[in-house]
Amino acid sequence: MAFTLPDLPYAHDALAAGGMSKETLEFHHDKHHKAYVDKLNELVAGTEWEGKSLEDIVVGTYNKTAVAQNGIFNNASQHWNHAQFWEMMGPTGREIPANLADALTKAFGSVDEFKRNSRKQASASSAQAGHGS
After folding, report:
1. How far apart are CA 124 and CA 91, in angstroms?
2. For residue 12, which of 76, 91, 79 has the smallest C-alpha distance?
């Protein structure tokens, strides 16, 4: 069973009001995430990992003593990470668990300040990486 790129659970332009443009989502989901999926399928073909679950591959290929992880682990973990990322974001606000809100307030002064800081960092990182918004 080959891995597939999951569909976004919302339209590509659904996050534009929050600062993530349609073009950014098209690039990050349709090209960047897809590249991890395609490479993972290529790397596991004909190996002991072919047909295993994504979670089994991530756990089974992780090497805590390695400075750099192997390609199977990297692509599997990035596919898992991105799939979670799309599900955790959305065009409407999501309720932040109380313990997380408390930790963010302690670290940043408020949840809103954390959000402002995160947007600035994401914007700077995106511009630096050439992803543009």
Report:
1. 22
2. 91
Distance of alpha carbon 31 from alpha carbon 45, whole angstroms = 21
65/111 Cα distance (integer angstroms)? 36
Angstrom distances, CA of residue 79 to CA of 20, 99, 102: 20, 28, 30
1-94 folds as Helix Hairpins (1.10.287)
Residue spans per domain, the chain: 1-94, 95-133
Give every residue of the chain whose pLDDT is below 70, as ranges. 93-94, 125-133
Q: What is the pLDDT of residue 93?
A: 65
Residue 122: Cβ-neighbour burial (10 angstroms; 0-12, 13-18, 19+): middle
Taking the C-alpha atoms of residue 113 and residue 76, their distance in angstroms, rounded to an integer, is 33
Burial 53-63 (b: 16+ CB within 10 A, else e): eeeebbeebee
Say if CB 33 and CB 82 are below 8 A apart: yes
